[in-house]
Amino acid sequence: MRKKEELIELLALFLENAPSIIEIHKMEKKGTKAKKDFLKGEIDSNKLEEIMGEIIKASNPMVLQDLNEMKVCLELLKYPVDKAKEELEHEQDHYNEAIKHGCTCTFQLKFFRNEEGQLGFIPSVIAEFDQDEDEEKMRQTLREIISAPCELSPTDEESLK
Q: What is the pTM of this model?
């Protein structure tokens, strides 16, 4: 884990350059649609990876080394402890399921500014599949990763429709 001082510096940089909530919502919607299309077999894993790569690049997320770094960042952002605990547990559930299936994962915080200029963020886990994996097995694994938390986020629910 990086030192707290380094995380403070990184947070300042990412917060300063946070895109608008409208841009982030467009990207989130595009990512949800891509996952949904992949799960339905309408696109293949290469197309999913391409779209998700574009989204990650455009949203410029803060990539975290582990869940502890996410926890420290939420503390530094003065995010309410009870809500932080819920977010961390939710992301941990996705992570645990992905690891169970042999995926490699990164944690991310996507920052944004709302219409009033206030800062917000979206935490996430990005799971990477073995490219030699069978497409149908990848679909099943992604379904299980998305549905892992007891309480699904609206994005999780939409991806599974």
A: 0.91
Q: Could you say which DSSP state residue 115 is in?
A: T
The one-digit pLDDT tens for each residue of the chain (161 residues) are 899 999 999 999 999 989 999 999 999 999 999 999 999 999 999 999 999 999 999 999 999 999 999 999 999 999 999 999 999 999 999 999 999 999 999 999 999 999 998 999 999 999 998 878 899 999 999 999 999 999 999 999 999 99
Element (H, E) at 81: helix 81-100
Helix%, strand%, coil% for the chain, nearest 5 = 60, 15, 25
Question: Cβ(112)–Cβ(24) under 8 Å?
Answer: yes
Per-residue CA distances from 20 to 25, 73, 78, 97, 118 (Å) = 9, 20, 21, 31, 10
Domain ranges for the chain, please list them. 4-155
